[in-house]
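Data deposition worksheet. Section B asks for the primary sequence of the deposited chain exactly as it was used as input, without tags or linkers unless they were present during the calculation. Section C holds the resulting structure in token form. Section D is free text for depositor observations; keep each observation to a single sentence. Incomplete worksheets are returned to the depositor.
Section A, Depositor: J.P.
Section B:
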Amino acid sequence: MSGIQASSLWKEWIEAEGPVSDFRPDSETVTKLMLLYRAAADGAFQDMWDVSARLYEWLLTLSKRRAEGKGSRRDIPKPYALAAAWMADRYAEDLSLGELADLAGVTKHHFCKKFNEYYRASPIQYLRRKRVEAAARLLRQSRLPIETVAERCGFADASYFGKVFHRYVGVSPSAYRANRTPDVGETLKLL
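Section C:
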């Protein structure tokens, strides 16, 4: 995206939220992004003005979210940011909730409650998402068997991995790998 207004809206978003944000799958922002993607994939745009109008409409969903007060991650206390970074770095390990709560210096119950408040996901959901993101990278960048990808990303069972991957991405790991196109980025970010 380019243009003064687009750059301004995007800069405001990045300053408020940082480079990674999470959205509910049924949120207006995700819904409009999927419609935008489908329209582009189907060649439905009539001209550059049509594309611009739809992109600005999508960008405005970000501004609306900020205006409604649905989240800034700037104020996440350091212990919780540290726990999130720990999960992002060690997603392949068997991490326990007790270990993460200890890292944050709080009880498991308090950790779960506050983590969910700050990241809009439970620690387990956050860890699963990090594992799925890593799996998507491996599926795109390697020819490793799916069972090996599952294992390297912290899933003990390939069948369970397939179910979790499908729930988050919308397709099976093998379909995700097979549908690789030059227009699709090399990584998948769920948060």
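Section D:
The first helix runs from residue 4 to 17.
Residues 1 and 7 are 8 Å apart (CA to CA).
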